[in-house]
Design a protein that fits this description.
CATH class: Mainly Beta
Order of helices and strands: EEEEEEEEEEEEEEEEEEEEEEEHE
Number of helices: 1
Strand order of the largest sheet: 1-24-23-22
CATH topology: Neuraminidase
Radius of gyration: 18 Å
Strand content: 35-45%
Helix content: under 10%
Length: about 325
């Protein structure tokens, strides 16, 4: 790998890489690549709802391995820490799991198949995302579809604290759908159905909020790039088909100013379009990977997905800046 590029600016260019992932015969995401993360070698891990729940590719899109059959209920979120250990969030199974990159389980939090009471604040009811504090290994879980909470754990999986409740005021949530560090002292939450990103200290103290169209996924850039990349889902049914509403990746500096974006802003299978940008990651070279729940998005809109392997994983190459 070459040296990492400088942080993204308004002058930075991105271009789609058509047919990047070389998915072998017999492997399918079934149209739902829910989340994506990159390790220290720029290998790309795709958590998906297909034949091999964990699919691993190199940076050129070559398939390296796949595993996890029968070990997850409904894959939703993934993150990788400084030691290349993997964190998985299973919203259908109501659990969070840490594994080695070979797939060996280090610990599991939550009782698989047994959710905490709906909107009761316990752990977990359909959790959605996870991020790791690089300074000490603490990690944070957004929870989720059946809760309105963020849970904080230490590196060994011990619960430290939780915050949040249903609502639309600062510190409240309406579907906390994904989560990321911002620097080493802030936690950013995609408060999806409140159409905003909320920023907290690592102790859960509210700092600020940014209006973002239907934020579905968020990640921090790597190396010198401390910007935040947000995958925006499309508009609600009442605005279905209206251009310019989400269906893009927007890039925000740590102060909350949008500095760049890419994606056509209309739903589709073309290389510069998105269907449902559900997970997002960057690599050391500033390239961006987007995982999409395309099958789910089509059916939620009453549409029949295209035949064959529906596009659900995209790479956008950083070209300049």
């Amino acid at each position: 790998m070459t040296d990492s590029p400088a942080a993204v600016s308004s002058e930075t260019g991105f271009e789609p890489v058509p047919y990047w992932a070389k998915i072998p015969m017999g492997v399918t995401f079934r149209g739902d690549a829910t989340s994506v993360a990159t390790d220290s070698q720029d290998n790309v891990y795709v958590f998906n709802r297909g034949t091999h729940p964990v699919a691993v590719f190199d940076s050129n899109g070559n398939f390296l391995e796949g595993w996890g059959q029968g070990e997850f209920d409904r894959p939703h979120g993934i993150a990788i820490d400084e030691h290349d250990d993997l964190y998985f969030v299973d919203d259908g199974g109501h659990f969070v799991q840490k594994r080695t990159r070979e797939g060996n389980v280090l610990f599991t939090i939550g009782d698989r198949g047994n959710p905490a009471p709906w909107q009761g604040g316990g752990m977990f009811n359909r959790p959605t995302g996870v991020c790791i504090d690089p300074t000490n290994g603490d990690f944070f879980v957004s929870d989720g579809y059946g809760n309105s909470r963020v849970h904080k754990f230490d590196a060994d999986g011990k619960h430290l604290k939780s915050w949040g409740e249903p609502g639309s005021e600062p510190g409240q949530f309406s579907l906390p759908h994904n989560i990321s560090m911002s620097g080493t002292d802030r936690v950013v939450v995609c408060d999806r159905e409140n159409f905003r990103v909320q920023v907290f200290t690592t102790d859960g103290e509210f700092i600020e909020q940014w209006h973002v169209h239907h934020p579905m996924s968020v990640c921090q850039g790597r190396a010198e790039d401390n910007n935040l990349y947000v995958g925006e889902m499309g508009p609600p049914p009442v605005q279905d088909g209206v251009p310019g509403l989400g269906l893009r990746v927007s890039i925000w500096n740590p102060e909350g100013r949008m500095i760049n974006q890419f994606g056509r802003g209309t739903m589709g299978e073309e290389h510069d379009q998105f269907i449902a940008p559900h997970g997002i990651a960057t690599d050391s070279q500033g390239n961006v990977y987007v995982a999409e729940v395309s099958w789910t998005a089509h059916y939620s809109k009453g549409k029949t997905p295209p035949a064959g392997e529906v596009v659900s994983l995209r790479k956008w190459r950083r070209t300049a800046g």
